[in-house]
Each structure stands twice: as structure tokens, then as C-alpha cells.
Design brief:
6 strands, about 5% strand, Methane Monooxygenase Hydroxylase, Chain G, domain 1, mainly alpha, 3 domains
């Protein structure tokens, strides 16, 4: 059960902070129960002049005022967040600190802003095609950092987050199999690919396992080392311009069948090396070293 002191403290924090403050998930329900309890005490006619009833009535009035202040200040903060999110997205903490009805309010306001932006864009450009480069999406799962088409990092994103991201990336994220977390399902999906552009280490591993040619974006040294070990020295460097990326892709894609043969051959060597390493490990363990 919430108390008057709790309400006072919540109002004080909202008053002196620019960020939405953390409230209990059942905040509105708890306040309603508290106010109902105070009303029942204040409505006792036989004790209308008692100190307890008079004090309770005053506390009830103050509690209602505090509650209205909290909700009003949070609405103003959400309006500010709508404008910020429309341009850059919002922080995880701000979104998590919203109550359920506030999240609904936020999403509906964002939709209104989006529609207004589209209308203004079409009016200014004199056409019916939306030329906005970004798209507002709600993430259904946690997503690691991505590499954008400009070479800059995008993300990471968390489940439930609303973010304004490049349309090209939004289209990729909307693929039905993008969020697969089961390794077997991911491996099967990789087997259907003709070619891979991958930034993550395990995307290269899955490509090798499925004999799929690839062109890596080496976010880490281990990606570069693995690719060179297979025999490929072509990389999409994040410092390069987009037209350089396209030229590299076109050339490597044309060579995909030759590269597939190289992967198949090198994969055999990898497998033999792993079997040898595993045998050495078994011998080491069987000799009682551990």
C-alpha cells in the first residue's frame, strides 16, 4: 500500500529531475486504493469534527494534488521524449521508467508525429512518395550492435525500445528469420544463402560450415584472422566509402563459385585439425593430468 510520504517523495523527484522517475508498476492502482481508504475515513459523519477526520481530509486533498502534479510532469516529459525520439531515439532507462499506459501514450504520439512528418515531406517535395531516410520501429527482441551502410555502429537495441533507424536497416530487421536464436534454425537458414556479408565472427563460421562464400566486415581482429586463414583477403572496411563497398561486393560475388570451392577444401583441413586437437586433448585428460 502506498503512503502519503511515498506520494510526496515521488512528486519531489519528478519535480527536480528532467528524466522520468521510476515508479511502481501498479502505481495508479495503489494511489486509487490509498485515496479510497482516505475518503472512507473522511466521510464518517459522526466524527466530522474530530482531529483525525479533519487531518485525513486535508491529507486527501494534498494527495490528490500531488498525484495530479506527478502525472502532469510525466506527461510533459513524455512529450519532450516524443520529439527527441523522432530525431534520435530514446534511452533504455527512459522507456523502462514509463508506466504501461504511458508507453501506449508514447507510441500513439509517435505515430501521430510520423504521419505529420510524412505529410509535410510530401507537401514540400510535391510528390506522393515518402523520401524519409529513417523509419520508426519497435524492437521485439534485444539486438546487438549493427554496422550501418555508412560504416557507423547502430545500436545495440533492447526489447520494447522504439528507435528511429535507417530504412535500409529497418528492412533487414523486418526479415522473418532475422531474430532466430536457435543455432540449428540459423544454420539451416544459412544453407539457403548464395552469399553472405557478415560482421560477426559466428556468421563467418556458419558460412564456412555451409560452404557459403562471404565478404566480411571485420569488426574484430578474430574475423580478419579467420577470413585470411580460409584464404580470403578482401574485407569491407568501415573507413571506406559506400561505392568502394559496392565495387568489392560485385567483384567478390562474381567469384563466388571459385570461393565456394576454396571454402570446401579449407573446411576439410579445419576438420582434420580439430579432430587432431580433440585427440590430443583426450590423451592429455586420460593420462591423469587433470
Amino acid at each position: 500500500m502506498i503512503t502519503y510520504n511515498d506520494l510526496y517523495e515521488y512528486a519531489r523527484k519528478e519535480r527536480y529531475s528532467r528524466q522520468l522517475q521510476k515508479l511502481p508498476k501498479n502505481f495508479v492502482k495503489s494511489v486509487a486504493e490509498y485515496l479510497d481508504e482516505k475518503r472512507q475515513i473522511a466521510q464518517k459523519e459522526e466524527d466530522v469534527f474530530s482531529d483525525v477526520v479533519i487531518k485525513t481530509k486535508k491529507q486527501l486533498e494534498n494527495a490528490i494534488t500531488l498525484f495530479k502534479e506527478i502525472i502532469l510532469k510525466r506527461k510533459r516529459k513524455i512529450l519532450d521524449l516524443v520529439l527527441i525520439a523522432n530525431e534520435t531515439g530514446i534511452s533504455r532507462q527512459d522507456f523502462e521508467n514509463m508506466l504501461d499506459f504511458e508507453k501506449t501514450l508514447f507510441e500513439e504520439l509517435m505515430s501521430c508525429i510520423e504521419r505529420a512528418d510524412k505529410f509535410v515531406s510530401k507537401s514540400l517535395n510535391g510528390d506522393t512518395e515518402d523520401k524519409k531516410k529513417n523509419e520508426l520501429i519497435v524492437f521485439k527482441e534485444d539486438i546487438d550492435t549493427l554496422i550501418g551502410f555508412d560504416g557507423n555502429e547502430v545500436g545495440p537495441f533492447f526489447k520494447g525500445q522504439i528507435a528511429n533507424i535507417p530504412k535500409e536497416i529497418a528492412k533487414i530487421l523486418n526479415l522473418p528469420y532475422f531474430h532466430m536464436k536457435d543455432p540449428i534454425s540459423v544454420l539451416e537458414k544459412f544453407s539457403e544463402a548464395q552469399f553472405l556479408i557478415g560482421a560477426r565472427y559466428h556468421s563467418i563460421i556458419f558460412s564456412i560450415m555451409n560452404d557459403v562464400p562471404f565478404l566480411p566486415i571485420p569488426y574484430d581482429l578474430k574475423v580478419r584472422v579467420l577470413s585470411k586463414e580460409v584464404g580470403f583477403k578482401d574485407f569491407i572496411e568501415t573507413s571506406e566509402a559506400l561505392d568502394v563497398w559496392i565495387d568489392k561486393f560485385n567483384r567478390v560475388f562474381e567469384e563466388r563459385e571459385e570461393r565456394r570451392k576454396i571454402i570446401i577444401e579449407r573446411k576439410r583441413e579445419f576438420m582434420e585439425r580439430e579432430r587432431s586437437s580433440f585427440s590430443l586433448l583426450l590423451d592429455f585428460l586420460s593420462d591423469g593430468h587433470i
